[in-house]
Design brief:
This protein is α+β, with helices and mostly antiparallel strands. 25% of the residues lie in helices and 31% in strands. It has 2 domains: 98 residues, Alpha-Beta Plaits, CATH 3.30.70; 49 residues, no CATH class. A 4-stranded antiparallel β-sheet has the order 2-7-1-8, with helices on one face. The radius of gyration is 16 Å and the shape is globular. The mean pLDDT is 96.
Length: 150
């Protein structure tokens, strides 16, 4: 059996909401995905972690020139992992563009964060733009939505 997660992470990889805000966001996500029940939670990490899309992975491209950088990305991410993702800054091998690992063009959204709001097996097709806005407002920060399939 496979599982799906609907995840929201802050756009800023270092950001974490206040606990009261994360509790409010959990209650909202439970309302938006009622079938997830007790599988909706807010997770705080001490260090930045990579939140991927699981088997939805379709690669990664340069945000400047759209070159396929997946082979390079694996090494760059491995190097960043060594420092606990403390420094996500990179220079693209294809066009010398300066950016961060978090700002690359992940074909299926993925990203780096110290916080994740997630619903396991939400049994919904998608959240609306209005629901996404409400979750961002509850958390007090801009968020990125990630769908993970394992």
């Amino acid at each position: 059996m496979s599982d799906n997660w609907l995840m929201f992470i802050p756009v800023d990889p270092t950001a974490q909401p206040a606990r009261v805000d994360s509790d409010r966001a959990v209650e909202l996500l439970k309302r938006f995905a009622p079938d997830a029940g007790d599988e909706v939670r807010a997770v705080f990490h001490d260090k930045i972690e990579f939140h991927d899309c699981g088997s939805n992975w379709c690669g990664v491209k340069c945000p400047q020139c759209s070159e396929d950088i997946e082979e390079w990305w694996g090494d760059a991410t491995g190097d960043a992992y060594e420092s606990g993702f403390a420094d996500l800054c990179v220079t693209m091998p294809c066009c010398e563009h300066s950016t961060t690992l978090n700002d690359l063009n992940y074909v299926w959204p993925a990203g780096f964060a110290r916080f994740v709001l997630e619903a396991k097996n939400p049994n919904i097709r998608q959240t609306t733009a209005e629901q996404d806005r409400e979750l961002a407002e509850a958390l007090g920060m801009n968020v990125k939505k990630i769908w993970r399939h394992l």
